[in-house]
Amino acid sequence: MPELPEVEALAQFLDDRAAGRTVVAADVAQIAALKTFDPPVTALVGRRVETVTRHGKWLDVRTLPGDTGDGEGDGPGPGDGDDGAIHLVAHLSRGGWVRWSEKAPTTPVRPRLGGSAGGRIAALALRVRLDDGSGFDLTEAGTRKRLAVHVVREARDVEQIRTLGVDPLTEAFTPDALAALLGARNQQVKGLLRDQHAVAGIGNAYSDEILHVARTSPFRLTRTYGPDDVAALHEATVTTLRDAVAASTGKPAAELKDAKRSGMRVHGRTGQECPVCGDVVREVSFADRSLQYCATCQTGGQVLADRRLSRLLK
């Protein structure tokens, strides 16, 4: 699943290439992926891409009215936001991705209700074509279709964006802010880091990485964190995400998945050596996901039971 660093890199990648271009076509292929109907997707046609940004793990393509030819925009229309903007926002979920083309296909897109026959084959969900012939596709692989596309007047019209927690790469994410989140209720720290209402943009992979850097158990309860522990977790969160963003920035969209995998210390590396201590990386499996950790670095050598609601083995 793309998380904050990859989505940040995708936003920068698209902004570098699409900003200033005019949308000439916006076609839905996967009807179930489109979660809104007003404004319609066709309202994007003829509009100029102003910026591409990120909210947590959400991509936000902000468009403004097109140029009339005299250097001035057309002005807000009846379906536009107060500033004339219409946003195309998308959550890539587990199997979604962005595919950029310097020469986007011009063949008609056939809308469909179901997914592709092969779960491993990325199916087209939405195609946006720009006035210079380039464009991008939103695709989704896998049998469980969770890609979410919204066309809205304000990004905050999407409830999941409006209710996002603090972005860990902003000045608002201070040690005091993290301490307040840790103390709000007693829960496992990995669950807090993954809670989008608390901290925006961190998922299963980077929570594993952050906790490994912080040398703390994924099942440690949040109200057991003292000031020094909070400071260490805060530093690990910011450093891990900033380093991942730096490693991803400038890479083509097609290379970001491999860059993410190659940069992982413990996540997805079950059975391999911990890069810090040399111990074996271990795994705890759940119904639809798993986590990875190093017992030497994070749990004092104790092995976590491989079951839901795991506790340290005695």
From TrEMBL:
<keyword id="KW-0863">Zinc-finger</keyword>
<dbReference type="Pfam" id="PF01149">
    <property type="entry name" value="Fapy_DNA_glyco"/>
</dbReference>
<keyword id="KW-0234">DNA repair</keyword>
<keyword id="KW-0479">Metal-binding</keyword>
<comment type="similarity">
    <text>Belongs to the FPG family.</text>
</comment>
<dbReference type="InterPro" id="IPR010979">
    <property type="entry name" value="Ribosomal_uS13-like_H2TH"/>
</dbReference>
<keyword id="KW-0238">DNA-binding</keyword>
<dbReference type="InterPro" id="IPR015886">
    <property type="entry name" value="H2TH_FPG"/>
</dbReference>
<protein>
    <submittedName>
        <fullName>Fpg/Nei family DNA glycosylase</fullName>
    </submittedName>
</protein>
<keyword id="KW-0227">DNA damage</keyword>
<keyword id="KW-0378">Hydrolase</keyword>
<keyword id="KW-0456">Lyase</keyword>
<dbReference type="InterPro" id="IPR012319">
    <property type="entry name" value="FPG_cat"/>
</dbReference>
<dbReference type="Pfam" id="PF06831">
    <property type="entry name" value="H2TH"/>
</dbReference>
<feature type="domain" description="FPG-type">
    <location>
        <begin position="265"/>
        <end position="299"/>
    </location>
</feature>
<dbReference type="InterPro" id="IPR035937">
    <property type="entry name" value="FPG_N"/>
</dbReference>
<dbReference type="Pfam" id="PF06827">
    <property type="entry name" value="zf-FPG_IleRS"/>
</dbReference>
<dbReference type="InterPro" id="IPR000214">
    <property type="entry name" value="Znf_DNA_glyclase/AP_lyase"/>
</dbReference>
<keyword id="KW-0511">Multifunctional enzyme</keyword>
<dbReference type="InterPro" id="IPR015887">
    <property type="entry name" value="DNA_glyclase_Znf_dom_DNA_BS"/>
</dbReference>
<dbReference type="InterPro" id="IPR010663">
    <property type="entry name" value="Znf_FPG/IleRS"/>
</dbReference>
<keyword id="KW-0862">Zinc</keyword>
<keyword id="KW-0326">Glycosidase</keyword>
<feature type="region of interest" description="Disordered">
    <location>
        <begin position="61"/>
        <end position="83"/>
    </location>
</feature>
<feature type="domain" description="Formamidopyrimidine-DNA glycosylase catalytic">
    <location>
        <begin position="2"/>
        <end position="115"/>
    </location>
</feature>
